[in-house]
Amino acid sequence: MAAIGPHRLHSSPPSFPVRSPPPSKIYRARTPASSASHHMDLQVQGRRRLKDFPYVSAPHRDLMVELVSTVETRLDPHLLPCTLPPDVQYYQNPTNTAHASLHIRSGHKSSPIDFILGSWLHCELPSGGALNITSLSANLNPSTDAPNFLLELIQSSPTSLILILDLPPRKDLVLHPDYLRTFYEDTQLERQRQLLEKIPEVRPYFSSSLYIRCVVSPTAILVRIESEAGGGRRMEEIVQDHVHPIAKEVLGIWLDRCASGESSVGETERAALEKRDQLVKNKTIEIDLGSSMPRLFGPEITDRVLGAIQEVFNS
Amino acid sequence: MAAIGPHRLHSSPPSFPVRSPPPSKIYRARTPASSASHHMDLQVQGRRRLKDFPYVSAPHRDLMVELVSTVETRLDPHLLPCTLPPDVQYYQNPTNTAHASLHIRSGHKSSPIDFILGSWLHCELPSGGALNITSLSANLNPSTDAPNFLLELIQSSPTSLILILDLPPRKDLVLHPDYLRTFYEDTQLERQRQLLEKIPEVRPYFSSSLYIRCVVSPTAILVRIESEAGGGRRMEEIVQDHVHPIAKEVLGIWLDRCASGESSVGETERAALEKRDQLVKNKTIEIDLGSSMPRLFGPEITDRVLGAIQEVFNS
């Protein structure tokens, strides 16, 4: 889970025989061009576009924008600019029914940050509805063993939302009870999980990928929120009043207790961490993107995007 | 979780200012005696007593008896007799409001079995109700890396039952995706979890111990069953029609795919397994018994029982 791709569709996705092309929206004017100046322009646009978080509700967008801004502000001295090509920072399928934005910033070699990754994806569904996924993840490098940060919201209708919010551990917690105590018990992360659990519309969510279930922590918030009775308004209320403050709190814990890089490690352990981090990154790309990307965007775009992500992850 | 004590009360136990002594039941006639012949007698009684599984409903008892019998029959050639002292095979508190039976059989050195452990506990509650816990666990030794078996039913009223049913892994599943595939994906354990999840009275259960959450597998069945509307009869029906066949199936998978000892390991890995197994045993004893035993049985009985368990686990 360390490396979270732009749209993890392990959540029992519908199959996607996408609709015939709709009238294109804001994106038609922004089709990738080839000249250098256009590239520069698109670089800037790519960054702006991530923060657009279009198509989702205002509370959902506010949540994502605030968290992305908080991470970028707090970690700015550690972060390099995004080096993804413009056509990976933003891409769409040939029929214009699926769009996505991806922004990855690697950390300076001297920092504890491996990378931060923000993304959104919008995909029109044959039913007439749409799937929207927004994510923010932040991975540390093997100079520290502290947990990573992960947030993902998967909205398949205005009244149905899957929320994944966690600090995925970077060690086997069974073998390291001290690590469990430091990062999960002492930080009282469980309280945040319990706060959300109390909302009547909230149910535990089980990822269809057993591997994904393994990489999350014992205090992971993995929930499905269904607000059919209260409609879309109720969902917006839940995101604003409950999901937002909880996500902010969890991110704050990560920034204060993990991203500082205080929990440094020796050489032997560093090698083990590196191996584990790399394995998790590869497995999650395989699970998250390998199957859904080709279906949504076709093989050419899939290769381009996955190749660019892998380049950043392996650099 | 590898080593499961006789009554894991990490499940938000009520506090136990036990009631004044009730008229003693079947146990008064069986008070431990000191002569050698009585000891022999009690040894036999201890074994019988485990299979009594008193106080619980008939379907609950049937389930436990069948599973214990299945394990003992299938693994009999591998198992040594129980060597626990009679006053550990059966014990009760001074006020006669809490009784427990514990039966542990170690495996032959040449077998893949570390031990099997069966237990029940009955404790009268101040409210007038009773807490009944029954468990069966089976641990393998480091000659194999295959998962262990674990079943525990915690009944705090006729309409409330917590079920823990799992094959706890013995390796970090994040680092060993092949192990995850062999023992959890290929065995389709997830189907059993999903079958139970469909029953309307079934809700996911989160152990209050984060460590316990870590030691279970991604297909662990951790559920709370509440049958208030249907009463005790409905609970019996759920145990008989759903819990029983699912537990039997999971035990069958364990016996066929894990207990055979086919998944053998080399010397280096054996040392790592040994370390992990030992850590899990110690931690689970600490979590499961450390806090609740003194409250239920007082310090003297606690020391005796824990000492005897540790002796078996460390032999």
3D structure, described in words:
2 copies of one chain form a homodimer. By secondary structure, chain A is of the alpha+beta class. Chain A has a single domain (55-314), classed as oxygen-dependent coproporphyrinogen oxidase. Chain A has 9 helices and 8 strands. An 8-stranded antiparallel beta sheet of chain A has the order 1-2-3-4-5-6-8-7, with helices on both faces. Chain A is globular, with a radius of gyration of 19 Å. The model of chain A is unreliable at 1-34 (pLDDT under 50). The interface between A and B is medium-sized, with 22 and 22 residues.
Give the topology.
2 copies of one chain form a homodimer.
Chain A: H1 36-52, H2 58-75, H3 86-89, E1 90-92, E2 98-106, E3 113-124, E4 130-140, E5 149-157, E6 160-166, H4 177-185, H5 189-197, E7 202-204, H6 210-215, E8 221-226, H7 231-257, H8 267-288, H9 292-314
Antiparallel strand pairs in A: 1-2, 2-3, 3-4, 4-5, 5-6, 6-8, 7-8
Which labels suit this protein?
alpha+beta, 315 residues, eight-stranded antiparallel sheet, homodimer
The overall pLDDT of chain A, averaged over residues, is 86
Measured between the Cα atoms of the first and last residue of chain A, the distance is 18 Å
Structural class of chain A: alpha+beta
Q: Domain count of chain A, please report it.
A: 1
Provide a concise account of the structure shown.
With 315 residues, chain A is an alpha+beta fold. Chain A has helices spanning 36-52, 58-75, 86-89, 177-185, 189-197, 210-215, 231-257, 267-288, 292-314, and strands at residues 90-92, 98-106, 113-124, 130-140, 149-157, 160-166, 202-204, 221-226.
